[in-house]
Amino acid sequence: MLSRCLKVVFGLGLALSSAVMTVEAAPRLVPEGNRHAEQPPVPGASSRRTAGSNTTFERKYQRIVALLASDETLRDKIRKVARQYGIAPIHMVGALVGEHTYNVDAYDRLQAYYVKAVAYAGERFQFGFEGENVLTFVARSEFANCGDADGSYRLWSCRERVWDTSFRGRAVNGQRFPDDRFSAVFFQPFFAGQTFGLGQINPLTALKMTDRVARISGFKRVSADDPIGVYQAIMDPDQSLAYMAAIISNAIELYRRVANFDISGNPGLTATLYNVGDADLRAAVLASKSRNGKQAVPEENYYGWLVNDRLDELRALFPES
Fold first, then answer.
1. Is the Cα dihedral 199, 200, 205, 210 positive or negative?
2. Containing domain of residue 134, as a range?
3. pLDDT tens-digit profile of 229-276?
4. Residue 320 belongs to a domain
5. In sequence order, what DSSP letters do the residues of 236-271 get, joined into one string?
6. pTM for this predicted structure
7. How many domains does the chain have?
8. Rounded CA gap, 100 and 68, in Å?
C-alpha cells in the first residue's frame, strides 16, 4: 500500500519532508491495544530466517525478555535515555523485543554487544553503488531541491524520496539502477538487509537521526563519508539506545504534527513504525485520507501486535514507569 502512495505523497513536495502542516484540532489519542484481533501475518523471510537458526519466535522473544529482566544496567540505560528523549521506556522495550524476536536473536549479555562493536573497528569500506560514492551520487542535479532541507532527517529523507521517484528500477543516462530501497543499494556493503547492534539500526536511519542524537545526547554527528563512524555508532549499545529513542520520539512527533494522532500511549504502534520506517510518509498518507473524509487510524503490524499483546509482561520490567 505504501509503495502505491509514494509518488502521490512525494508530489506534495518538500512540504512533506519538512513535515509542515497546520492542524487546529487537538491530536486524537490512539488508545493502547491492538486494532487487529489476530496477529497480522509474519513475513516469510523472518519465518525462514528463524527456522534456519533452529529456533522459534517464542524462544527468541523469551531470550530478549530474559536479557532485559536480568540486566539492571541495561534497564538503567533505557530509563535514562527514554527520559532524555521524552518517551516512556516501554517504547524502547517494544522496539528491542520486536527486533530480537523477528529480526535477530539476542545475545545473553549486554557486554557481547560491546565486543561485537569493537570487531567492526578495523573494517575499510565506503557507502556507494558500483564504485560511486553515495555523496557523489546525491550531488546529481536530481537532488538539487534537497539542499534546502533543514536538518539531517529531512535531508536524507528527501534524498531517499528522489531515489524512489527518479532512480529506483530505472535507467538514467545509460545506467541501470536496482529496484530496491536506497538503504539496501548504497548503505549495506556487507550484505543486503543488514541492520546492526542492540537496536538493529540501518546506517541510513542513523544518518537521518544524527542531528537529533547529537543535540539531545551529545554524541558526535555521523557522516556518509565516514562509514566506520556510522557503524561504530549503531553497534555501540550506548549510542544505539540513543538512536532508538531518537527514531521513536521522531515518529511520535511526526504523527502528532502531520497526521494529528497521538500515538505516545500505544507501544505497539511505535514499535511498528520502528520496524517499517518512513514515519513521515505514513503520517502524511493518514492525514491525506482524513482530509478526504475517510476513516483512517494507525494500525499495528505483526511486530507491533506482539508488543501490545505482551504489554503487561513487558511493562513489568519497568514497574515505576
1. positive
2. 2-315
3. 998 899 899 999 999 999 999 999 999 999 999 999 999 999 999 999
4. no
5. SHHHHHHHHHHHHHHHHHHHHHTS-EE-TT-HHHHH
6. 0.89
7. 1
8. 12
